[in-house]
Design goal:
Elements lengths: L15 E5 L3 H12 L4 E5 L2 H11 L3 E5 L7 H10 L8 E5 L4 H9 L4 E4 L4 H57 L4 H21 L8 H10 L12 H4 L7 H8 L1 H17 L7 H11 L20 H16 L10 H10 L7 H8 L2 H10 L8
Parallel strand pairs: 1-2, 1-3, 3-4, 4-5
Helix pairs in contact: 2-3, 6-7, 6-12, 6-15, 7-11, 10-11, 11-12, 12-13
The structure holds ligand C2E, succinic acid (2 copies) and fe (iii) ion (2 copies).
Length: about 375
């Protein structure tokens, strides 16, 4: 849409004017004056009728008699000016001659202007044209605002999409050296989202879980092992058990990933203090190997000291690792995996999250099946 600039001379203006007067003679008079400058006229004989006409015909300017039966002009004006659908329509009140009281009441009712009756045709026409111009500018700005809002929405969607693809590529890159697959990432994010939504629905976590939190964990959980890019091949891909030195190095994948993502979050923020998904990604990368009893790494955090998102990812990560083939281990059967998870209740895993996971096995299995690992099936 282009923002059209009004270039036509004022004499050629088009517009619809609502004339409201209970006196048929005055109504006809005003109608003639408006007609004679080429504008369309809609009429009403009282306030109630006027409000009905406004809804039907969206006038550009309203000429409103002050003294009328049923609903007077002041009350009509007040109603129009307090309704967000109509408060932008200019109202010219037609008041009794030199009545200061009427003038004050018109202002209080929100009228944009007032004219004393009887009024001069030329003066009335100039005022109507002036307000018509104001109304047109308002309408154009309104249209432009809607256009901009629509563009911002579209651009935001594009940015989100680009972010999603970038994040996924980044995570996938890390996984290239690790024989984990893209399906592992898909399963992870779906397990995490499903558990998070369920926890949210339980309500025990109150304000901790909102829609944005769910969106963030879906997007950021796939970055939990991004720090593995910093682990040498001879350790990461070692077919057997790691010795104690290798294990020390292996464990640094948490702080490596967390630091990189934390740095990215700080660069992105530039003064905003809203917590974004990169903060969550950093928290997950750093703390996904913490254990509920405090025996995990890197910081040995326990219980609620471990960020919620990391406690959620821990369950999903171990579940998926158990069912997957790794250079150092074969997949374990589903029943065995569930047994191992259950053994970790309250020691490795947050009982509330583990229970939620184990109570959702149908949905978990649906996700496992939907994103079945092709390389594991051979
Ligand atoms: P990963 O393979 O993605 O495993 C993630 C987590 O799943 C592990 O964290 C562990 O808590 C759980 N897990 C995986 N396999 C088993 C299993 O067979 N039994 C049980 N009970 N739990 C299992 P953890 O131990 O902190 O290991 C972190 C990462 O370190 C692993 O990620 C893997 O990349 C690497 N890693 C761990 N142990 C070895 C190993 O013996 N050899 C090699 N090459 N890498 C290892
Ligand atoms: C948090 O880190 O848990 C909240 C910080 C924030 O909302 O900015
Ligand atoms: C986002 O707006 O989703 C990301 C912003 C951030 O991570 O701070
Ligand atoms: Fe990990
Ligand atoms: Fe993983």
């Amino acid at each position: 849409m282009m923002l059209e600039i009004e270039t036509s001379p004022i004499a050629k203006m088009q517009g619809r004017i609502l004339v409201v007067d209970d006196d048929p003679k005055n109504l006809l008079l005003a109608t003639d004056m408006v007609h004679s400058i080429g504008l369309e006229v809609v009429t009403a004989a009282n306030g109630e009728e006027a409000i009905q006409r406004v809804g039907e015909s969206s006038p550009d300017v309203i000429l409103l008699d002050a003294m009328m039966p049923v609903m007077d002009g002041f009350e009509t004006c007040r109603r129009l000016k307090t309704d967000p659908r109509t408060n932008h329509i200019p109202v010219i009140m037609l008041t009794g001659l030199n009545s200061v009281n009427d003038y004050i009441m018109a202002i209080e009712a929100g009228a944009d202007d007032f004219m004393n009756k009887p009024f001069n045709a030329a003066v009335m026409q100039v005022r109507v044209k002036g307000f018509l111009k104001t109304k047109r500018m308002h309408d154009e700005l309104d249209e432009y605002r809607h256009f901009l809002e629509k563009r911002v929405r579209e651009q935001t969607e594009i940015i989100q999409e680009v972010q999603d693809v970038t994040i996924f590529s980044l995570a996938k890159l890390a996984e290239y050296r690790d024989p984990e697959t893209g399906e592992h990432l898909e399963r992870m994010r779906h397990y995490c989202r499903m558990i998070t939504q369920r926890l949210g629905a339980q309500g025990t976590l109150g304000a901790d879980i909102d829609e944005e939190y769910v969106r963030s964990i879906f997007r950021s959980s796939i970055l939990h092992d991004i720090g593995k890019v910093g682990i040498p091949d001879n350790i990461l891909l070692k077919p057997g058990k790691l010795d104690s030195g290798e294990w020390l190095v292996m464990k640094t994948h948490t702080s490596i990933g967390g630091a990189a993502l934390g740095e990215a979050a700080r660069r992105l923020k530039r003064g905003r203090n809203r917590r974004g998904f990169l903060d969550m990604a950093s928290s997950i990368a750093t703390f996904h190997h913490e254990k509920y009893d405090g025996s995990g790494y890197p910081d040995g955090l326990a219980g609620d000291k471990i960020p919620l998102e990391a406690r959620i990812v821990a369950v999903a990560d171990v579940f998926d690792a158990l069912l997957s083939k790794r250079p150092y281990k074969d997949p374990v059967p589903l029943a065995k995996a569930i047994e191992i998870l259950r053994e970790g209740r309250g020691t490795h895993f947050d009982p509330m999250i583990l229970d939620c996971f184990l109570n959702s096995l149908d949905e978990i299995n649906a996700i496992t099946t939907r994103f079945a690992d092709k390389s594991n099936e051979e």
